[in-house]
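Protocol step 4 of 6: record predicted structures for both targets in the notebook before any analysis. Target 1:
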Amino acid sequence: YPVNMKLPSTLLHKSNPNPRVSIEDILCDDCILHILSYLDPSDLLQVEQVNQRWAALSYCAWKHCQELKVSKTVTCKQLNDLLERTQKKLRTLDISNCSDSLVLTKKVLDSIETYCPNLESLSVADNFMKSSAARLIGDKYPNIKHLNLSYCENVNDKVMKILSSKCVNLHSLNLQGLIRLTGSCFSDFKSSLKSLVLRGCYGIKPSSFRILVEHCPELKTLDVSYTNIDTETLTYLAKYLPQLNSLRAEGTDIEWRSGPLNSLSGLHQLDIQDGVKVDDESIKEVCLSCPNLRSLDISDNYLVTNKGTTDLIRLTSLEELNIGGTEITNFSFFTKLQKLRKVGVTNCKAVDDEVCLQLLSNLPFLEVLDIENSSATWLAEELAKERSAILGRPVQLHAVEVF
């Protein structure tokens, strides 16, 4: 129970005086409701099966539910039942991956509108969406702030134009995997947009990104991984989006050594994993252009060697660093980055138990050490446990992925 929670006097006994009475019979309703408030919706459904009392209490607990993610097999009727339980308090709804059992028809969208009048975030990823459904979403939820349409079959520029013209208060938009987009819809995007994911949208023309900048000048988070964006276009984006603090550009042909990020000194997160032209000179230029980085992923770039580490140590604000899959074999530079909380060295065969010991001993704030597919043995896990005990505080090394 939470430290500041006042428990019924019956719970202050060291043991149950009547062994035939179960603990749920001892707990008062308020206490059970408090416990249920920590459960997610799927667990609440299970609790309903215990007995009539718990079913009634579980139903009451739904009024605290503001987020709901449904299973892949939910039907329209089942969705109605779930939404009704939330008593119109729902703000986030995720019906992704339900295309086999739930089609975005007018009936489904009407149900969502009825039971979710305060909806702010909607995810319909991996569903088939017709232009009529897009128009309905725009009509019913004009004030929605977060929309996830990733991998929605049939979503093209026409559909996006409809949505963009109606959903005028969008703050974040996920269009990952929409291969039919060319970018002509960007001219209808609104200036309220702060976060945009275009990952895998390889049909977008480089020239369309310039249109995006003109209509979304307040973007702070942008993902252009695995798109056809080029060096010249990225340089243009950086120049006119100086407030950008998160950029993901995995798997691109960008020439990083030419300094396309010179205008983004305030960038906090950068992901250039699996880049075609990422080498030591690229790392040098990135470190010079973005000295305030807190998170950097340069994994799966085999042209990055130990030479690049001489520049990485300049990033003294780094909290997350992933160098997995590079040719870096000297890991002593990590000790210069004392603020690191998360380190990724996956697929680095040079990482053994001794390296793990050095990282665990010399990085005081380390929480996550990912050494999957390295040369480390089971001793690494024991070292992590021992280090946690020495620190004398709750275990922060919560994910040592080795075995």
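Target 2:
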Amino acid sequence: NMDFAICIRTAIVEHKRLTFRAGAGIVADSDPAAEERETVNKIKAMVRSLDLLQRAQLYAGNTDLF
């Protein structure tokens, strides 16, 4: 028996560059196409969240986004 803590969604800001990473939990009966869709959807959700944050900051007059 083992327990793991795995980062499935991450966003890293380094040197004014933002990198998104996403993964999926692969098991014996995983469907590769479904896992790929899930991973892409995770990235899309993070990008949409950042877009909303940027729009809110710009609306408030804050142009220093990072």
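Step 5 preliminary note on target 2. Residues 9-59 form one domain. The longest strand covers residues 9-14.
Proceed to step 6 after PI sign-off.
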